[in-house]
Amino acid sequence: MSGLYFMNETYINEKEYNKVILDSDYSDITTSNPIEVIGVKVKYSKEVVFFRPNTSDIAVFRQVFVQGEYNYDYTSDSGHDIQYIIDCGANIGYSTLWFAHKYPSAVIIAVEPDIENCSHLSNVKTLNAAIWDKKSEISLCLFDNDSGEPLEKWAYRTTESTSLQNQKVQAYSINDLIKKYKIPFVDIIKIDIEGAEKEVFDSTDLAWIKKTNSIIIELHDRFKHGCREALLNAVNKVFFSIQEKDNVCFLKRDAFIRYEEIE
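RESULT FIELD:
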């Protein structure tokens, strides 16, 4: 197999492809026939994983399954099982799938504001919503503010401002999610919300941080100044160890907490 080529000419080369792909079931996507979804099987799932041609799905796939963006040690020295995971900005669901494979007994909450992205998620609790500093109705930006060009599906951003081009979406705070799903603590929270992390960590209500053992977050200071500063200010009293690579930060509590410790 020579590789998986997409309409936008991005691809996974054969060496990378064979690391994660077991077999595939798709037709020739270089033809003029429109193809909405391509299904492939990966080592991380017994189910078919879907690509949408000519979208950012291929780049997200590479980040998660080829480059191992979320491949950190989330376990504690005492060997506690990972029980609760919140995936904020689940996109098409690749990160959720990765966590579900690595921690099959964990309860996973996947939150994603784009309805089309949500339609591909399965076997986890999904919520079609955005993450914000409070429960409210906000706007999903589908177009770049400067150029007016459509944003890639992985780059949709949220804002409180209104525009005819924006899409209304329900937003929740992380504390709201914990209450909604009756989660006693969070082992892993993954955050990739295209700059809204600034509002989340600038919030006056950060009680959820004291119930969280690990945070894996992509920072977007390139979109919104102050994201990294807001994060570090919010966690500086919770004694996390911090690893940084490019725009991704992995924060881990020095001493893990459990339900009996936070009542």
